[in-house]
Amino acid sequence: MTIPGGSGSGDQPSPGRRLRQLAGLSLSVLKGVGPAAEADLATLGLASVLDLLTHYPRRYIDATRLVTIDQLRAGEKASVLGEVVRVQKIGGGYGKGRRSPGRVEVTVADPTGRLGVTFFNQAWRAGQLPPGTLALFFGPVTSFRNALQMTGPQVEILALASQDGEARPDRGRIFPVYPLTEKVKLTSARLGRYVAEALERAGPLADPVPEPWLDRVQLIDRTTALNAIHRPEAMSEVEPARRRLAFDELFRLQLALVLRQRRLEDDARGIRHRTAPSSAEDNLWQQFVAALPFELTNAQSRAIEAIAGDLASPLPMHRLLQGDVGAGKTLVALAAMLISAQGGHQSALMAPTEVLAEQHAAEVARLVDGLSVPDPGCLGGRRPLRSALLTNRTPAGERSRLHDELRTGQLDILVGTHALLVDEVVFHSLGVVVIDEQHRFGVEQRAALRDKGRGQDGTGADPDLLVMTATPIPRTAAMVVFGDLDMTIIDELPPGRQGIATTWLRGRDRHGRAWSRVRDEVAAGHRAFVVCPLVEGSERIEATSAVAEAERLAGEDLAGLRIGLLHGQMKAADKERVMAGFRSGGLDVLVATTVIEVGVDVPEATVMVIEDADRFGIAQLHQLRGRVGRGSAPSYCFLLSDEESSDEATARLEAMERTSDGFELADVDLLLRGEGTILGARQKGRSDLKLARLLSDRDLVAEARQLAVEVVAGDPTLTGHPLLVEELRVFVDDEEAAFLFKS
Ligand code: ADP
Ligand code: MG
Q: Which site among 24, 137, 509, 659 is 20 to 30 Å from 499 CA-CA?
C-alpha cells in the first residue's frame, strides 16, 4: 500500500515512517514522559520509540466481556473492573519470631455496587492496593453470609491511586496488559497511553516486505499490524497482527543468516579436498569402509556424498548434520575427517563437555586404528594416522607436546573441548572442523575454531565445517539456530534395530517390575544399565549417591548379580576397567551417573533403568534410552519416579513412553520448554524473537527463509533494497552489520 509522508525523503520508493527513525527517537519526545518516567521505561529496557512499540502486550483483558458487580453470581469465575475504596489488614504480624497467618480485605466498587475481595497470607496486597487504585480482579466468586465475595483473585492494576487524574480506561474496550516489573511505578494503562501517542505520531509505516509476498504468505500491512497488536478493537484482530510482526522478526533473522552465509562464501579461501585419490593406499575412507563389519545405511551414504561434494568444491562447507540417536553420525563425521587426512590436512572435532570429548576421542582412536598416511620422513614412507585428545585436564607436558605436533602436522585428528580454541593451538593445515554442537556452542565459537585454518599469519585456508546435533532439533528451530548452514538429515537407523519398550513406573511399590526385568534379562545372558539421579551442579554429590545406590541394589533389589559402578569422579583407568568389564560380560549391571549419556555402545545391553527420571530433560532421556536397543534382542527402558511429578515432567515422561522418534520428541521438548533454551546463544540484543513461535509458526519460518534466499539470490548486496538494509542495521549489532554489508 502507498502512504504519503513520514519518511521525509522525496525519492524513496517506500514512503512511510521507517524503523530506524523510530529507533532514533528518545522516549522523552512523548507527552508525559519526563525524567522519572524515562528512568522507569529504561528499567524495562525501553530507550527509544521503537523499543516501546516493540514492547508487545503480554495478554489482553477483553473488557467487552467484563461483568459488573451486580451481574456476579456465586460459583463462577469472573473478571471485575473496579476501584479500591477500602483496604484492611487483619491478623498476621510477627509474634515470637514467627509470622501468624493473616488476611487482607479489600472493598472494590464499580458503578453498580461493591464487592469484598479477600487475600490470605498476602499482607503485601495492602500496600499494592491502596484506596483509589483501579484494577482488574479475576477469580472465583463465592457467597459468604449472604454477600458475594472473591477470594485470592489475580490482580491487574490499571491505574495507580497516586496518579490522580489519570484517564480511566473505558469499559467496552480491550486493554493490553504489558510486561512490567514490580520495580517500576508504571501501569499497563499508562504504558498503553504512551504507545497510543507514539503510534499516532508515527503515522503510516514504511513496509519492506514486497506486496506479492504479503499476499502469498497472507500477511496484513505493517501499519495495521502494529496498531492492532497494541490497540485491538476486537480480539480477532490480534492474531493476524502478531503473525505479520512475527514474520518481520523471522525475515530479518533469516536475511541476516543468509547474507552471512553469502559473505562467508565471498571471502572464502577454501580447500579442494582430495576426495578420490588415485592409489588405493591413499584412499583412507575407502579402506575404512571396506573394513567395516557392516554396510552403510542409505541415509549415511547420501550424507557422505553431500559432504564429499562440499569437500571437493573450492568453497568451504558449512553443513549441519542431524540424525536420531544411534543413526550413525560418528561415521559420517569420520568420513569428512579421513578425506581431510588423505589430502594431507588435519581435522578438529570439538565437543561441549569433557566427558563427550573423551568418548569421541576413544571412539575415533578405535576406528582409525590401522590406517596410515604418507610421511616421507618415515621408514617405508608412511606413518600411522594419529588422533589425540585435548581438554583442560590434559597435563601441561602432554599439552605442549600436542601443540608442537599440531604445528608440525604430525597429528592428524584432534578431539577436544573449548580447549581447542586457545591461541596456543595452531594447526599446520586445518582441513575439516567438526562441531558436536548440542546447541551449546554459539556462532562465535564455531567461527573461532574455523578461523584457526587461516593460521596466525592469516595465509592459511578456510576449513570445511560440519556441525552435528546429538539429538534432533525441530526443523524450524534448526533454520533459526543454524540458518547459516546447509542441512543434511540422516532419517534412517541401521537395520535390525529392535524397538525399545518404554514404561514409566510411578511410586516405590511399582519399581520392583523394573528390577525383576533386569534379573530376567541377565538370566537370558543380557546386560542392564541403571542410571542414578541427576544432581545438578555437583558431580561429587552425584557420584556419592551413585555409590550408595550401587550398594543398595547389590544388597537388596539386585542381590546376587555382578554390579559395576561408573561415575565422573573416578580415575580414567578405573572407568576404563569397569567399562571393559561391562563390555566383555564380566559385569551384569552397570550402575552409572549420566557419564554414560552419549557414546557408550554395548549391543548386549537390553535394559535401561533411569531413576528419578522426572529430573531429566527429554533430550537426555532419549540419549540414555539410546544406549540400549543396539543389538538383535528386544530392549526395555524403565523410567522410575515418585508418585507425584510436575505437569511438565509428566508430559515429558508420557512422550517418552509414546514414541522413540527423536524428531517427534524434539517437537515435544520445544513445546514444553519454549524457544528460549533452544535459541540460547543465537539470541542477543534486538534480534530477539519476541512474537515468533518456532513450533506454531513453522510455516512463517519456512516462508521467511524462502523469501530471504530469493532476495539475496537476486541481489546479493541488497543494493536494490535500501529499506531492508536500513532495517537490518537497526536490529543487528555493529560488528555483524559491518560483516554483512562490507563492500
Ligand atoms: P549417533 O552418534 O548418530 O547417535 P553412532 O555414530 O554412535 O550414532 O552409531 C551408533 C551405533 O551404530 C554404533 O555402534 C555404530 O558403530 C553403529 N553403526 C553406525 N552405522 C551403522 C550401520 N550402517 N550399520 C550398522 N551399525 C552401524
Ligand atoms: Mg555418537
A: 509
